[in-house]
Specification:
mainly beta; 49% strand; 4-stranded antiparallel β-sheet; globular; 112 residues; single chain
Length: 112
């Protein structure tokens, strides 16, 4: 799967790899970002899994490294049915953010 982004991530690309575990109790999510621009000062990009009943689970975040335009997030979710979205969140509040509060920059719909 591929996705294009909007807003602060416009022009970035990502490859999304979804692999269910053989026991059926978890799914691996691997998202590789390319041609990234640095997040605005004080902001970070976060990848979320979202269930059909709108429960959000933070899968990972992209940390800015000057001059680096690629990143990867590897995570596991136990959700059977989920979508993925990327938001931009306040870096100071990232440890306490439990649901997306910032703008959505990319949405990926996963259908079993």
């Amino acid at each position: 799967m591929k996705v294009d982004f909007t807003g602060a991530m416009a022009g970035a690309r990502a490859n999304v790899f979804i692999e269910p575990h053989k026991n059926g109790k978890a799914t691996e999510v691997n998202m590789r970002f390319h041609e990234l621009k640095e997040a605005p000062t004080g902001q970070t990009y976060i990848l979320w899994a979202v269930s059909p009943d709108n429960q959000f689970f933070k899968l990972g975040q992209i940390v800015n490294i000057k001059g680096r335009n690629e990143a990867e997030i590897k995570a596991t979710t136990t959700l059977d049915d989920f979508g993925l979205l990327v938001t931009m969140e306040d870096l100071a509040a990232v440890k306490t953010v439990l649901v997306p509060a910032g703008p959505r920059l990319g949405v990926i719909q996963i259908v079993p």
